[in-house]
Amino acid sequence: MFQLSTEGLEKVKKELKRYETRESAIIPSLFIAQEENKGWISEEVIHYLSNVMDIPASRIAEVATFYTMFNLKPVGKYHVQVCTNISCCLNGGRELAAHIAKELKTDFGQMTEDGRFTVSKVECLGSCSTAPMMQVNDTYHENLTPESAMNILRGLK
Ligand code: FES
Description:
Mean pLDDT: 97
Bound molecules: FE2/S2 (inorganic) cluster
């Protein structure tokens, strides 16, 4: 059963005090929970947050399903998010995403068999001037070519 760590729970309680309405703390709390649940938001996580935050689970689920930065199924150790929005697209972002998925022998949104990678296509990550780019967990990699992207991914432990 999912439970936040003592530290994580304290962070959520702090978020609840930070805003005028409890609902405003949903997004930061989902981030905290996602980090502690190996990168994804399960139904258990939603129900746990609902109890802790005293907010209906349906409301938390609405937020979790609306924003693409919350993963609703397990992701690999490395979540490779390739931007395919306009600037990246014009600079080969779609081809880059397809190349990465092919090289890693996976489909978008699926975890590789070894559990190391999940490749996703995402909307603009705010790094348009250095397109095409990808985000791997918390790190941005910019001005990519298919080769440089694969060198980065193959170099991860
Ligand atoms: S369009 Fe890719 S970072 Fe903005």
